Amino acid sequence: MMIEINEKIKSLKVLYVEDEELAREKLGKFLERKFSTVKLCSNGLDGFLAFQDAYSKNEKFDLVISDINMPKMDGLEMFEKIKEIDKDIPSMLITARTETEQLLQAIYLHIDSYIMKPIDLNIINERLDRICNDIFYKKSYENQKKELQTYLDILNQEAIVSKTDLSGKITYVNEGFCVVTGYEESELIGKSHKLIRHPEISKDFFKTLWDTIQSGKIWSGTFKNLAKDGSTFFVNTKIIPIFDSSNKEIKEYIAVRFLVTEDELKKRESYKKYLEQVTQYKKAISQLVSEKELLNKKIIDLSNANISLENKASQNELKRKQLLNQLEAYEKNNLEYDKLNLMTKQDKSKQFDQMYRALNSIKSLNKRQEKTINDLETMLSAKTGELDSFIKKDLENKKRINDLKDLVTNLQKENEELKKQKKSIF
C-alpha cells in the first residue's frame, strides 16, 4: 500500500512560481526529485497562464507552490484567479513577508500551507508529504465514489432505490421506486417512508431497523409495503449507511430493494455481485481513511523524533566546538610550531602527528641530555675525589717542606753557633 501511495505521489503534477532565480533553481531541483512533472514559472502572470492552459487541456496541476512578491502579478492575485477556475486546488505559499493583511488574504483564499523564507527543505518536505497524502486520499475517495455511482446507476436500472437524510426524509428515488409505489417523485421527496409503510408491520420492526443503520451497520430483510393504489408488494431490502470522506460520520442512507417474485429473484441474483462490490468499496474507503490517520500519526512522531535528533546534533556540535577551542588553546600555550603553515597546509590529523613527532624528538633529546648530565656528574664525582686526594697530598707536601725549612733553619742556627764556638776557642 505504501509503494502505491509513493508511486501516486510521484505522478502528481506541480506548478512552482518564483521570481528569484536562485531560489527557483534550488527548490525546483528538489521538487523534480520528488515529482515526475514540475513546471517552473518566473512570475505570477506566467504561472496563471500555465495553470489555465493545462486546465483547458484536461491536464490540470495537482499542486501549486508560489512566492508572494513577484512582477506582473503577485502570488495572492495569481491564486485568486486560479481558484476562480479550480477552488479546490491544493496550494502552498513561500514568502519572506508576514504582514497581517497578506496572512488574512491567504486564509481567505484557503491556502493549504504558508512557509516562511529562508527555505528549509526539511520543513517543505514535511508539508508536501501531508498535502500530497491528502491529495492521494481525496483522489482515491473520488475514484471510489465515481465507481460506486457507476454501480448505483446499474442498480437503478434493475432495483428500487431511495436515499434518505439522517432524519429519515427521502432525498432521492429512482424511476423503479416510483413505478412500484405508484407515487410521483415530487410526492415522495421530503416525505418519510411511512408513506408506503404497511400497517401490518409493527413499530418494533422499524425501531430495530433504525437502531441497526444508525450504529453504522447494514440492515437486510424482507417486508411488505403499501402502494398508492392500496395494493401490497414485498421487497427484499438492504439499507446501507453512507459515511463522509473521513469515514467517521454518517451523512445519509441508501436503500436498495428487489421485488420478491420469481422474475425479480432472478434479476436480484444477477446483480447481487454489484451490491457485494458496493460493500467492498465502502470497506476499502474506510481502510484508506484509517491508513491516512495512521500515516499522519507516524508523520507527527517522526517530526518529533527529528526535532529531538536536531537538538542532540546541536548539543554535539557545541561540545565539538568547545573541545576544538580547548585543543587550540593548548596548542597555543604549550607547543611551539609554525601555526600559519600548519593551518594552511595540514589538517588537524597531520598537525597532531607533527606535534607528536616533535614531542617524541624532545623526549629523545631530553634523555640524551639526561645521560650526558649523569655522565658529567659521574666524571665530576671522580674528579672531585682526585682533587681531594691532590689537595691532601699538597698539604702533606707543604707540611714536609715547612718541616724541612724548619730543619734547615735549625741546622743553620746550629752551624752558626758552631762557627762562633770555633772562633772563641781559637
From TrEMBL:
Q: Any idea which residues bear 4-aspartylphosphate here? A: D67
Q: Which residues form a coiled coil?
A: 271-424
Q: GO biological process: any one?
A: regulation of DNA-templated transcription
Which Gene Ontology cellular component terms are annotated? Answer: cytosol; protein-DNA complex
Cite the Response regulatory domain residue spans from the record: 13-132
Q: Name one Pfam family in it.
A: PAS_3
Which GO molecular function annotations are given, in alphabetical order?
phosphorelay response regulator activity; transcription cis-regulatory region binding
For this UniProt record, give its keywords in alphabetical order, as a comma-separated list. Answer: Coiled coil, DNA-binding, Phosphoprotein, Transcription, Transcription regulation, Two-component regulatory system
Q: Where is the PAS domain?
A: 144-216
Superkingdom assignment: Bacteria
Name the NCBIfam families on file. sensory_box
Q: What is this protein called?
A: PAS sensor-containing response regulator
**Species of origin:** Halarcobacter bivalviorum
